[in-house]
Amino acid sequence: MRGLFSLVFSLTLVSGLTAQGYSSVHFEYRQLADGVFAAIHKTGGYGICNAGIVSLGKETLVFDCCLSPEAARDLKKAAEELTGNQVKYVVNSHYHNDHVRGNQVFTGARIIATTRTRALMEKLSAAEVEDEKLSVDERLADAAFKIANEEDTTRMAEHQLWLGYYQSMKSSHAEYKLTLPDYLVDDSLSLKGKKRSVQLISKGGGHSESDMIMWLPAEKILFAGDLVFIGFHPWFGEADIPGWLSYLQYMKRLGPAVVVPGHGDTGKSADIDEMSGYLTSVETILAEMVRNKIPVNRIGAIHVPEKYNSLYFRNFFTPGLTLQYQKKIRK
Ligand SMILES: [Zn+2]
């Protein structure tokens, strides 16, 4: 009887929690509305991407679930403690490892993604893990060397981010188990709970071949996945940039009050414009490269535009430009 009483008491306590002061080494959990939280990845943690936690009433949903199962367990625990309910739905915004590899810890939950996201995971994930295993120790040593020798504080923070990324990657290998989405959505799906509804929307590709966003119409909160990076260079190497730009226009028309990006701090509608501005400047640079017939081995000499000099993930720029340029000159 006493056991039952303490169980009921502790459930009452946890269901009333807010995210104030709730954080871990992996994430800072931030309350956006009653029952809606952003899990913001912390430098040095193993989360790597941001995530969302939404209480639908009796069910809890997690949007994106990070690179390592260790961080995903942290996310699951936070989701269940902050909402007082078990995680019933997990959404994978796209197939990239830092958004899907935590799937395996959400046993019993329905994992939702697009058909293309599932196909890409099925086709690429196992080989990707094997490739990572071959290079991860060298990448860790390289990041540690850069940290030991860096004097610039911004660059130091960037090296620390990458060190966390490689540590997270390595930690994921030991227990990796491919866990594929089991519920496929190719345009939109409304999930209605007692407390609120969320809309899962896919307009095809942009950042990846297939991206999905989550929109909370009543609260005007948008979980954008990697279609929006804030304070970071986006990874655009495999992107459909015109498709990405029209996706951003669609997101802008939704009129979000809060935008939760895949990487970086939470932002506002103006951050969607920033993202469009970045991609438009990449398109301008690419057009000039094509016009001037730049040899591929000279792309490294093209500077990051001044405006974007202080963004993290600077090392995304040259490989992204190279892949996009090769795609253009092959046409
Ligand atoms: Zn991505």
Features:
single chain; 331 residues; alpha/beta; Metallo-beta-lactamase, Chain A; 2 domains; seven-stranded mixed beta sheet; five-stranded mixed beta sheet; 8 helices; 12 strands; 42% helix; disordered N terminus; binds zinc ion
What's the SSE blueprint?
Elements: H1 2-15, E1 27-33, E2 36-41, E3 51-55, E4 60-63, H2 69-83, E5 87-91, H3 97-100, E6 110-113, H4 115-149, H5 153-173, E7 183-184, E8 188-192, E9 197-202, E10 212-216, E11 221-229, H6 241-254, E12 258-263, H7 269-291, H8 317-330
Parallel strand pairs: 4-5, 5-6, 6-7, 11-12
Antiparallel strand pairs: 1-2, 2-3, 3-4, 8-9, 9-10, 10-11
Helix pairs in contact: 4-5, 6-7, 7-8
The protein binds zinc ion.
The CATH superfamily of the largest domain turns out to be Ribonuclease Z/Hydroxyacylglutathione hydrolase-like
CATH class of the largest domain: Alpha Beta
Mean of residue pLDDT? 93
Helix tally equals 8
Give the DSSP E fraction (strand runs of 2 or more residues): 15-25%
* Domain module count: 2
* Molecular shape: globular
Percentage of residues assigned to helices: 40-55%
**Uncertain runs with pLDDT below 50, 5 residues or more?**
1-16
Q: SSE string, helix = H, strand = E?
A: HEEEEHEHEHHEEEEEHEHH
Protein architecture, described:
The structure is a single chain. The protein is α/β, with parallel strands linked by helices. It folds into two domains: 15-119 and 180-269, Ribonuclease Z/Hydroxyacylglutathione hydrolase-like (Metallo-beta-lactamase, Chain A, 4-Layer Sandwich), CATH 3.60.15; 124-173, no CATH class. Helices cover 42% and strands 19% of the residues. It contains eight helices and twelve strands. The strands form two sheets. It has a seven-stranded mixed beta sheet with strand order 1-2-3-4-5-6-7. Mean pLDDT is 93; it is low at 1-16. It binds zinc ion (ZN). Zinc ion binds at residues 94, 96, 207-208, 226, 235.
